[in-house]
Amino acid sequence: MIQPPIDLSRARELLAQAPRIAVLTGAGISKPSGIPTFRDAPGPQANVKPITAMNMTLFRADPPAAWATHWPRVLAMRAAQPNGAHHLLSRLEAQIDARAVAHPETRDAYEFTLVTQNIDGLHQRAGTRQVIELHGTAHKAQCTNKTCKVSFELDVSLAPAVPLCPLCGTAGRPGVVWFGEQLHPVRARLAKSAFLYAHVALIIGTSAQVYPAAGYAQEARAWGTTLIEINPEETDLTRLCHLSLRVSAEEGLRALMDVTR
Ligand code: APR
Fold first, then answer.
1. 42: which residues sit within 8 A by CB, 6+ positions away?
2. What is d(CA 256, CA 261) in angstroms, rounded to the nearest whole number?
3. Is 123 a known active-site residue?
4. Which of 102, 169, 209, 256 is most buried when burial is the number of CB atoms within 10 A of its CB?
């Protein structure tokens, strides 16, 4: 049953009472923090080659060259600060937590899940706890020894060297998902179920070009989830959304959460 479009006041009502909210974010939410997007309209922050343009064959052929392109992004993301949109999503998560506390008899019915395609870690730094990093993180590396494969924090003082596994000394690879690689199966399943069981799903700052992330919203819609998009530009998901706000992430969240400052 496809629901009719909704207006902003109805969207506010739904968001203010929804027990289960899922959020999908993309590079657009971090653009105001100075982190370039991938496919955005050309502008002062010229698009960067998608970080996922790298692959394991290229990496194994020349690990130092792979890290030479990755370290600058790691350092830029470490230096970036969460912006208003990141903080507003952290506040939204706290509102869901408060609703759960206010309804102890149905506490389990309340859930906030933020699925991000971003690797910058800014959602966590803004205080959001339930974050699923679908495409990995810039802040970790993974051992390339098949019998070890441990994931370890990146020590930025090592740049631009190839980080070595603290357990077995083998070269580490960036802790991100490259094009053509499988997502972490548990992360992917948790992300999908968060959308399928959500009452309201927010799709913020993503061109919705990459799957399976873009597919979660489509499937959720078929299950009756109310889809609300925030993006200055139209995307392939716009026509599926019950409301699509043609504004920045921060402006859109302020409007939806009725937050003025
Ligand atoms: N607020 C909200 N949205 C914004 C803002 C903003 N301030 N600025 C730009 N946008 C929108 C753009 O209109 C665009 O639709 O953010 C979107 C960014 O799209 P992409 O650059 O394609 O980034 P994303 O959707 O996250 O890419 C998905 O592709 O290259 C891979 O792994 C990479 O995770 C990435 C995935």
1. none
2. 13
3. no
4. 256
Sign of the CA dihedral running 137, 139, 144, 149: negative
Summarize pLDDT for 53-110 with one digit per residue, the tens: 688 888 999 999 999 999 999 999 999 999 999 999 999 999 999 999 999 999 889 9
Q: Given the residues 70, 123, 135, 242, select the one marked as catalytic.
A: 135
- The structure tokens listed for 68 are 């030479």
Pocket lined around ligand 1, Cβ cut-off 6 Å: 26-29, 31-32, 37-40, 50, 52, 117, 135, 205-207, 209-210, 230-233, 235, 248-249
Using the atom order of ligand 1, give the atom closest to the CA of residue 213. Answer: 28
Distance from Cα 197 to the centre of ligand 1, integer Å = 25
The alpha carbon of residue 43 and the mean position of all alpha carbons in its chain are separated, in whole angstroms, by: 22
Give per-residue pLDDT as tens, 124-169. 999 999 999 999 999 999 999 999 999 999 999 999 999 999 999 9
Domain-wise residue ranges, the chain? 8-33+82-135+177-257, 36-79+156-174
pTM strictly above 0.70: yes
